[in-house]
Design brief:
The protein is an alpha/beta fold. It folds into 2 domains: about 80 residues, Roll (2,3-Dihydroxybiphenyl 1,2-Dioxygenase, domain 1); about 55 residues, Roll (2,3-Dihydroxybiphenyl 1,2-Dioxygenase, domain 1). The strands form 2 sheets. The chain has a 4-stranded mixed β-sheet with strand order 1-4-3-2, sandwiched between helices. Strands 5-8-7-6 form a 4-stranded mixed β-sheet, with helices on one face.
Length: about 150
């Protein structure tokens, strides 16, 4: 689960840039937070999504789910941000996405003005990239057959 400042901006990033599909939204207004559940689906899965309650069941049967949590009011606070876990005190570090072609992914991120923490050619760990989402969380980008 990642806490997000502005769910509209985060959903735009995770669906539009990373190609995830929003499968379920759980709202808890009495506790002042909402939950957004996303998964990376195949084209066939996206084209054949069930409806209603079946969609929620489908959502929680996925191999991996990204849960975004929005605590009400954070989106209106200009100076508000979440700690990314990579500076002191260290904690959470990053999530990881595997892509079929790292070069194409890097070109896509460049085209969409995604901020890089590390490009594949930088540093001693080649063939991996780190991008940042709209809240500054790090996302590792890998291509499986380059990881051997």
């Amino acid at each position: 689960m990642l806490r997000v400042k502005d769910p509209a901006k985060s959903l735009e990033f995770y669906t539009g840039v990373l190609g995830m599909t929003l499968l379920a939204v759980k709202k808890f207004p009495e506790m002042e937070f909402d939950l957004y559940f996303l998964a990376k689906l195949t084209d066939s899965e996206r084209e054949n999504l069930p409806a209603g309650e079946e969609l929620e069941i489908f959502a929680f049967r996925q191999r991996g789910i990204l849960e975004l949590t929005h605590n009400y009011g954070t989106e209106t606070k200009a100076d508000f941000s979440y700690h990314d876990g990579n500076s002191e005190p260290q904690g959470f570090g990053h999530i990881c996405f595997s892509v079929p072609n790292l070069d194409e992914a890097v070109a896509w991120f460049d085209k969409n003005n995604v901020e890089f923490k590390k490009r594949p050619e930088d540093g001693s760990m080649k063939n991996i990239a780190f991008i940042k989402d709209v809240d500054g969380y790090w996302i590792e980008i890998v291509q499986a057959d380059l990881m051997g």
